[in-house]
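Pilot study result, target chain (204 residues):
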Amino acid sequence: MNDLNDSIQDYHHSELASSGYSTVMIDSEQEEIIEITKVNNIEPKEEIEEKEREREREKERVKEVGKENQKEEKEKGERVEKSKTIKITRNQITLKQRSPEEVREFQRQETERYKNPHLPYTYVSLNGVCSVVAPIIKKQPTSLSNKPREHIMLKQDRPYFVTILCLARDAAARLVDGMGTRADICDLLKDSQYINESLTDSQV
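Predicted structure:
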């Protein structure tokens, strides 16, 4: 009988072996290891979702960088356009025309200003606007007999320390709120009694 049972077991083993099945027993620890390996070989759903979120965040960052670049280009273009506008309008007069009375009052104060060229002076317009100008020279002149240098824009009959530069500074100080164009300064410059009256606007 025992020989018969052994023969039957040997037959089953040989049948299993010929069918490609392994007769090696796998315990519970080995099964657990195999299961862990299988799980590690398959990308978890959470990791896939996290990668998707990271790609979305990267897209948003790219969009933000693009928006910043567009903003910078727009601001640069606006600065260029503004500079072009300034170049176009700098030769335009924005001040209102002074009345003959205003010009006479300015020239009266101008005479006082150049009597003491070593002191600061404050021009006061008829409407009460004050314009402070700096001294022209450091010390009070000891003699007024010195001849001034010839200048095509200035009268020869003037104090020797009166130059086109100091007259231009006086004109700039009289700009409304300290703002104006180059043409405004030239226009105010013509109010001076020391400017050659035969000059044309283009020469000034």
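One observation from the pilot: The beta strands are 121-124, 130-133. A full batch analysis is planned for the follow-on phase.
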